[in-house]
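Table S2 (text version). Query chain:
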Amino acid sequence: MNFHSEPNVFVRQVDIKVADLERAIAFYQQVIGFQILEKQERKAVLTADGKTPLLQIEQPEEVVSKQPRTTGLYHFALLLPTRSDLAKIIEHFIKNGYPLQGASDHLVSEALYLADPDGNGIEIYTDRPAESWVWNNGEVHMTTERLDIESILAEGDGTPWSGLPAKTVMGHIHLHVADLHAAEQFYCQGLGFEVVTRYGGQALFISSGGYHHHIGLNTWNGLGAPAPVENSVGLASYTLIFPNEEAREMVIERLKRIEVPVSKKDHSYLAKDPSGNLIVLSV
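Corresponding structure-token output:
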């Protein structure tokens, strides 16, 4: 099943703020493997297939460095089509000596973790077949084990890395929030996601359509963590895609019932979660 298409609700694009646009473009092209779809003086839109925006990077006026112990982006996660694709990018990182922050087997997926030059977190992963995921009472079993790099590299097909595969999608986003209960109310009662895993009282994973998670939420930066200042490096916004206008209208009505302000911009609607993370509601 494709968990990143209708009738599911999923993350299509993430917009982040950086301190130096040209440095960020070089990193995202040369290290991660994006293509430039559109470029302006202080902003660039990046793609894997030459047509679908996945990541927007922008350099705010009077930008300040990423602020610690605040809400916002923990990481955005790029989902590669195959395990062989993961092998190629591992070989690419080894060849270029780019440091990873982690490499984990989550049972449902196999993942690499790193950061861009400004400290914006990135996950690059592949999913295991959905039929192998273990569910119990509506929750999917995920863990964090050592990634078997050797096994993944053995699946490489011998062709050199040439950037992100065209079928790469934005697999999920993981956010720092100030209050997990308030976040759950907003994302589940408001946006309509379902809880699929809880990590004690510190993290929550939610999804649409039985995915292992489209959104992760945690309080690892501290309960009551403040939102960063507007011109700080970090998350600007992320875009959720709804299957149709009717589904989006239902969500907007639910948000209004729980007293969440919703505004309109062009053909999209905007809402902020209780921790100040901006979400674009699109169709």
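Notes on Table S2: The mean pLDDT is 96. The helical segments are 21-32, 83-96, 149-153, 180-190, 245-257.
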